[in-house]
Amino acid sequence: MPARGPAAITLAVGLAVAAAGTAGLLLTRHAVPAQRPAAAGLGALPAPTGPIAAPPQPPGPRPVARPVALTIPVIGVRTPLVSLGLDAAGALQVPPTPSVAGWYDGGPRPGAIGPAVIVGHIDSYQGPGVFFRLSQLRPGDRVYVRRADGTLAVFRVTSVRMYPKDRFPTQAVYGPTPDAELRLITCGGAFDPVTRSYLSNVIVDATQER
Amino acid sequence: MTFPRMARLLPVPLTAFALLLGAQAAGAAAAAPAAPGTGWIRLAHFSPNTPAVDVYLYSFDSPGARLVLHHVAYGTVSPYQPVAAGDYSVAMRAAGAAATSPPVLSTSVAVKAGHAYTVAGMGPESGLRLQVMSDELSTPAGQALVRVIQASLKQQVVTVDFGGKLLAGRLSFATVSPYRAVAPGTEAVTATGSGGDATSTVTLAAGTVHTLVILDGAAGLQIVNLEDAAGSGHMPVGAASTGLGGTAPRAPASPAPWLAVIAAGSLLALGALLAMAGALRPRRQPRPGT
User: Fold this and answer.
1) B67 belongs to a structural domain
2) Which among B33, B35, B242 is the nearest to A120, CB-wise?
3) What's the ipTM?
4) Residue B90 burial (CB < 10 Å; 0-12/13-18/19+)?
């Protein structure tokens, strides 16, 4: 029977392909869960050392040096700071790489009177970014900003809150304050896979320690 | 002027005050400044012929807590002290007087969350009073706010301008001008009285709030520039795009490609089966011819 050999081979190939398809279907059926940040305290860093700068004293204003690095020991953040401006639409630029945080240079410098703003990514396309664990900060936690002159401005967290991006508290974040404050911003909340964007921002407020 | 002395003296009573407040309000947030529900008070001495004083700040809500600024001399201004919103009283005693002695002066201040106040000794010693000023914490977009406190006894009436723009005309001793919005810039501030004047170069950045205090200096008028508050001169629009989703949960991938593969394999197998069934069917044999 000359026709039986090729038909048997075709049958085998067909069954194999169908089986492979079934296996593929079963293997990709489950959702990918969110990566969970390790508990705060794990991977904690020692506090940086150096001359601690006093908060601003009247009569002001007195110039302070540019910020160059940020350390948040309790959540293991240690990053250089890049300068950020505004994009063409007038929105805040974000750091070019997810592993580095940036300071908004259109606002006060950390340790000068007013709210200094530092932003960092929660993640990249692949994994955690520099501010992945930002939402784990709690009131009282310390944040250190090294300035270009080697001095450290030490801040203490006063609140950690999440805001939907369409109700971003612009005035509270960027508006005037009578003392030296710090805002740390990253993304949070639900992720919209269509726009590839998180729907909320996590905002940490901190005030310079006296 | 004793600004450096003030700076040295501040931390100890402040820490004690913060600790007391923190213990009372339960939770670390209360001890840390600028938490929700926090306002600010600063204390000042603007009475030219009044000797140095000790200034006490008491909280009505926690009577044990107090902040003491020792030996506050004419022209001295404290940094803003973050305090829980509520009612406070400010008392002045002669420098070195016992804390239990009756104060020379006292006044009450109702601190609202998110608001800032200056409590200043104003006027001549003979008519010394404590004045509570409400301090502005926001500016019109792209502008600076500035006001003037006239604390010169030698020049009873002073006119102050910023780069030629009038800030306060004929301001009397011991009065405060309203805040005025000005275009940001670095300009000469001129204070002119009937018997003397003073000039000082002042930078007023966009998004900042200032108080200019006119004092009797060692020789003539002195202009002190206080930065009441500062923000971003240019506020970014909207939120921050600081995530790309690599750690976000993802929905299961679409099953369509795999279903197509299964369908293709099944069709192939089915076709092969049909072909095999056809091959097995007995073929019709040709009949022999007759």
Assistant:
1) yes
2) B242
3) 0.81
4) buried
Q: Which range marks the domain in which residue B188 is found? A: 136-232
Q: Which residues span the domain enclosing A71? A: 33-208
Shared domain check, A69 and A4? no
pTM of the model: 0.80
Residues B127 and B190 in one domain: no
- Segments of chain A scoring below 70 in pLDDT: 1-4, 60-61
The distance of B40 to chain A (nearest Cα, Å) reads: 8
Least confident residue range of B3-7, B98-102, B281-285: B3-7
Single out the residue of B277, B266, B275 nearest to residue A16, CA to CA. Answer: B266
In a domain? residue B163: yes
Distance from chain centroid for Cα B15:
20
Of all residues in chain B, the percent with pLDDT exceeding 90 is 63
Write out chain B residues lying below 8 Å of A11, CB-based: 268-269, 272-273, 276
- Asked whether residue B213 is assigned to any structural domain, the reply reads yes
Contacts of B99 (CB under 8 A, 6+ apart): B56, B68, B93
List strands edge to edge, sheet with B165-172: B165-172, B157-162, B185-193, B196-204
End position of a domain, from candidates B135, B150, B166:
B135
- Give the residue on A whose Cα is nearest the Cα of B213: A59
Q: End-to-end CA distance of chain B, in Å?
A: 141
Indicate the residue type of A170.
T
Query: What total number of domains does chain A contain?
Result: 2
- Give tens-digit pLDDT for A5-49: 788 888 888 888 888 888 888 887 777 777 878 777 777 899 999
